[in-house]
Amino acid sequence: MEINTTEYKKIVFIEAKPELGFNFGYFLILNRFDDSNKKLQMIGEANNTRITNDTAENFERCKYQVFKNGLLFKHMAGFYNNSAVVYPTFLRPPLENKGDLDTHALTSMALHSTREDIKRVDLQFLAMFQHAKEVLRTWGYEPTEKLITTGFSASAKFAQRFAFLHPEQVSAVVAGGMSATLCLPVESYKGYILNYPLGTNDYEEITGRKFDKEAFDKIPHYVLMGDQDQNDPVPYHDCFTDEEREAIIGISDADIQ
What we know:
Distance between the termini: 56 Å
Order of helices and strands: EEEEHHEHHEHEEEHHEH
Structural class: alpha/beta
Strand order of the largest sheet: 1-2-3-5-4-6-7-10
Largest sheet: 8 strands, mixed
Shape: globular
Number of helices: 8
Helix content: 25-40%
């Protein structure tokens, strides 16, 4: 599906391609650009839509965000006259008595989910990114090898956590309204073992490789939080497990003291 608008040069919806590693479709958005310059800065932002198990409804919500809402990538694109945005349509399914499985925030529960369609959404996002680069090359463009991950609120967490899991794929992180603890490049702190998404203790178990701290340290992070934003996701069961919550609160109390 292709739609031309006055704001963007081209918006294309790429259908799901399980054989290539992604079970959901994604929007590929080419921002305003000069056709004489074929180089494109790649930007990625996870969809931040409401809870649903309905694929068609989720698609419409994502489409509305792409065309109507002020997503962070729209602000980022202003810095890059030539850019291409990968915007997935991941489901955020409800969980009985536990809120939802927050794929948009790439929580530990989402990352470890065995549900086939949403299994390892970080790898699905990576597969979308790799596919988008190939599509753009066939159109005659030169996409950057790495992408800038962006997001606001839940998708801000996805942006930073994806960079943590795949530092070799990310050139920068721009995350707004994080309202939660960042992934830290350490296995423990203040006597607490830090598993994902708090730290690197179980990183090799998850990814199958050692944490590349050198690559991660090279990624600039621009993380912003409004001083009047009172949204705290730590108490919510769909955001953090009991163990993660205990570590966050314990470390915070120790730092305050």
